[in-house]
Amino acid sequence: MAGTRSTRTTPLSPATKKARKGVVHGYATQLNNIYDTNPNKLQPHGALRDMVAGAKRMHPWISKSQICCTSVRLRKKLKSNLTILADVTIATNNTTANDDTTVSPPHITTCRNGGRPIGSTNKKKESLEEKKMHAKDEIAIRLKTAKKTLSTQKYLAKGSYNRIHEDVAEEFNLLDTNFEVSIRTVASRLRRGTPKGKTKTGPDSPASSIEPVMLQFAKWKQEANQSLKPSEGLVFPSSLRQNKTKIMRIR
Q1: How far apart are CA 202 and CA 195, in angstroms?
Q2: Residues contacting residue 160 through CB under 8 Å, at least 6 positions apart
Q3: For residues 243 and 233, what is the distance between their CA atoms, to the nearest angstrom?
Q4: How far, in whole angstroms, is CA 119 from its chain's centroid?
Q5: End-to-end CA separation in angstroms for the chain
Q6: 22-58 pLDDT, tens per residue?
Q7: Alpha-carbon torsion 170, 172, 178, 179, what sign?
Q8: Concatenated DSSP letters for 54-116?
């Protein structure tokens, strides 16, 4: 039995959809310009056919219906905006005629402004993580201070750590979050003598002085959509350590 050929197509990515939408928008704008330049506001004979034929040479996926529908939608949006602007102008003139004050018409936008600003979610997440880190340090410092105040008792009173944890969480406005620090984490810090968690486990790295330069170089390569070659990753740090900056040619 002969196998049937699958007609399933790969779904388009959001970036591809956005790019195709921009292409169709451009052709629809050209079609509207042809309408506007024609004295009778009619489509010249064969204008749409020639436009679709030329577009298919560059973009085989485009169709006549896509251009026509986008053109109609743009003309309706323009007509709606002009109607709103005319109403605002009439209201402004009437107000100026009755009063001696001039009222400026509101700004009309053709796109909907909504959602959070770009990058605000990541900044909020970073600020929350930083706040949790400072709260954890504060818990360790307060527990260390409470242990130093002990005179005759060997251990803290039962529930002391929970009270410190709740007080710090309330001060840092973390009660509504899933903020929780284990007592083992704080006890480990106190045993090391580092309440803030900053500890030095060994000697400094030989590359610590050139790490910022290496990181910046890697970022530049990433922004240029170029991967860092293994040879570059070896030669460049060596040249920095020897105080001989080697200029690397970027494609």
Answers
A1: 18
A2: 143, 146
A3: 16
A4: 4
A5: 53
A6: 888 888 888 888 777 776 656 666 777 888 888 888 8
A7: negative
A8: HHHHH-TT--HHHHHHHHHHHHHHHHHHHHHHHHHHHHHHHHHHHSS---PPPP--SS---SP
